[in-house]
């Protein structure tokens, strides 16, 4: 079996002493250059954004005519919480995932500029100086010592007849746009996470306050029961149950404290600060904020424009399509124009006057003849990767629709549940008050009082959690619709500023700058 290799048919550059062929080669090169510039030929598929048959309205919402577009700009301000607004701004500035996404944008843009250079000629300069000593074989002759100086330029330019470099530039441009969408997607996630953890912190604060308040009330009831037991007005069962109920409620306090601390620590990390940095700012407490209602969800087609992760998947599909053309171009002949000029003299003062000057110029044609199917396989690899990104794009669209549908249903049903729990809690509160009054009058057993107080505590706990769920599902809906940070983001400034990057004495390996 023959080894995998690429054969080349090459037209060598014309030399100065080949006057007859020089004119023909020059004309050939100029003709090829004209063809390349005029044709602008490329191979491989031209990218077109796929079209999907999306529903005209959300299945979980009544169809609106016309549907109101979602209000995504600074959606978190609907909570009307200044501290939350401040924390989100700080997170955008200090979050490390955002810093990573910024660096990826700078990398992608630099790659694009790098790829632009493949469309332009490259020129290199060179210079050398040598001192030579030679001895003649003739007896008695003196050794000859002389200096020689050389300088010159080398130039080359690939004509990109079939658009391989242009496809590479196209892929790099799509890659830079994908990196920008990745930053926007990171901001959507960040804003949603900061808001969610803030809501959870307020939820645990409310649950802590409820547990402490209820435990204090139940402990007073247990104290009263003990006094009644001593007076013969209560039984040992009443005393034991009253004490157990107060103790059970007190046991909830450490659990809520753990959850609250973990939430605040995570919130601090999202902002880019040490875990305990926000404890003082959140210590004052506050109720769980509720958003305005209702929320406009627009139509499913809006996701193609508003969801950064969907746009990211689409840009990655475009990039993979361009790479097919880049791989396909390698299967076609390529032509490069190369040239060089050089001068040499025995002294530097003679380089421009009495020097020996030579030059060469001509095209180089490279034709793939046999490579064991490697180039065709590379194209097949690129096509398979394109199909993967096509499937990923479809999955991103469907996943986005699922997120919205789930959030719409969850928010709507949680609002209904919250209304029922509000009414239920009010009824339990009246029942607890009435049972105490009737117990004091001797109309009901003391166990009825304990049962009413336990039911009230459970109802108030469920009400707080339901209130937080409304806020969480509101956040989820806005994230699902693509709402994120729409303010300016500075991405050109590097996180690490290098100093002393010019020529300088090297330090010993492992030596730190502070040592």
Q: What is the first-to-last residue Cα distance?
A: 61 Å
- Low-pLDDT stretches are 1-21
Could you estimate the helical fraction of the residues in percent?
Answer: 55-70%
Structural class, by secondary structure, is alpha+beta
Instruction: State the order of secondary-structure elements, H for helix, E for strand.
Output: HHHEEHHHHHEEHH
Tell me the fraction of residues in β-strands, as a range: 5-15%
Determine Rg (CA atoms, Å).
38 Å
Strand order of the largest sheet: 1-2-3-4
Q: Residue-averaged pLDDT, rounded? A: 87
Extended strand count: 4
CATH class: Mainly Alpha
Total of domains? 1
CATH superfamily: Outer membrane efflux proteins (OEP)
The profile of the biggest β sheet is:
4 strands, antiparallel
Pfam family, one: OEP
Protein name: NodT, RND efflux system, outer membrane lipoprotein
Keywords: Lipoprotein, Membrane, Palmitate, Plasmid, Transmembrane, Transmembrane beta strand
Membrane topology: Lipid-anchor
């Amino acid at each position: 079996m023959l080894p995998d290799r690429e054969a080349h048919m090459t037209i060598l550059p014309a030399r100065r002493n080949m006057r007859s062929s020089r004119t023909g080669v020059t004309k050939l090169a100029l003709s090829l250059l004209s063809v390349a510039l005029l044709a602008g030929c490329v191979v491989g598929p031209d990218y077109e954004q796929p079209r999907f048959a999306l529903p005209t309205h959300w299945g979980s919402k009544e169809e609106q005519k016309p549907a109101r577009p979602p209000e995504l700009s600074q959606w978190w301000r609907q909570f009307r919480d200044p501290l939350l607004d401040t924390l989100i701004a700080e997170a955008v500035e200090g979050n490390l995932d955002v810093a990573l996404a910024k660096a990826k944008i700078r990398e992608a843009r630099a790659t694009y500029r790098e790829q632009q250079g493949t469309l332009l000629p490259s020129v290199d300069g060179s210079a050398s100086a040598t001192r030579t000593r030679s001895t003649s074989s003739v007896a008695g002759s003196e050794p000859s010592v002389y200096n020689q100086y050389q300088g010159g330029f080398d130039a080359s330019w690939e004509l990109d007849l079939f658009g391989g470099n242009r496809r590479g530039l196209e892929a790099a441009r799509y890659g830079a746009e994908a990196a920008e969408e990745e930053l926007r997607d990171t901001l959507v996630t960040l804003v949603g996470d900061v808001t969610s953890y803030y809501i959870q912190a307020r939820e645990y604060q409310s649950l802590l306050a409820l547990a402490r308040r209820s435990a204090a009330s139940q402990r007073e009831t247990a104290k009263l029961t003990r006094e009644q037991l001593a007076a013969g007005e209560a039984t040992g069962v009443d005393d034991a149950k009253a004490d157990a109920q107060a103790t059970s409620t007190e046991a909830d306090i450490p659990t809520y404290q753990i959850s609250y601390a973990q939430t605040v620590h995570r919130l601090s990390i999202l902002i880019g600060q040490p875990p305990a940095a926000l404890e003082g700012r959140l210590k004052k407490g506050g109720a769980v904020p509720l958003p305005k209602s209702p929320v406009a969800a627009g139509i499913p087609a809006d996701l193609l424009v508003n969801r950064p992760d969907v746009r990211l998947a689409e840009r990655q599909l475009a990039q993979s399509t361009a790479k097919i053309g880049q791989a396909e171009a390698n299967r076609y002949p390529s032509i490069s124009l190369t040239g060089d000029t050089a001068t040499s003299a025995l002294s530097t003062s003679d380089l421009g006057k009495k020097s020996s000057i030579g030059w060469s110029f001509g095209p180089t044609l490279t034709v793939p003849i046999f490579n064991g199917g490697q180039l065709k396989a590379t194209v097949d690899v690129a096509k398979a990767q394109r199909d993967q990104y096509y499937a990923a794009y479809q999955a991103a669209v469907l996943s986005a629709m699922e997120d919205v549908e789930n959030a719409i249903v969850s928010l709507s049903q949680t609002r209904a549940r919250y209304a029922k729990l509000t009414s239920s809690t009010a009824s339990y509160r009246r029942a607890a008050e009435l049972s105490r009054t009737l117990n004091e009058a001797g109309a009901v057993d003391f166990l009825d009082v304990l049962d009413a107080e336990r039911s009230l505590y459970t109802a108030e706990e469920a009400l707080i959690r339901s209130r937080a769920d409304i806020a969480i599902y509101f956040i989820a809906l806005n994230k699902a619709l693509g709402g994120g940070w729409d303010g300016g983001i500075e991405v050109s400034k590097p996180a690490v500023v290098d100093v002393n990057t010019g020529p300088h004495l090297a330090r010993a390996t492992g030596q730190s700058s502070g040592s």
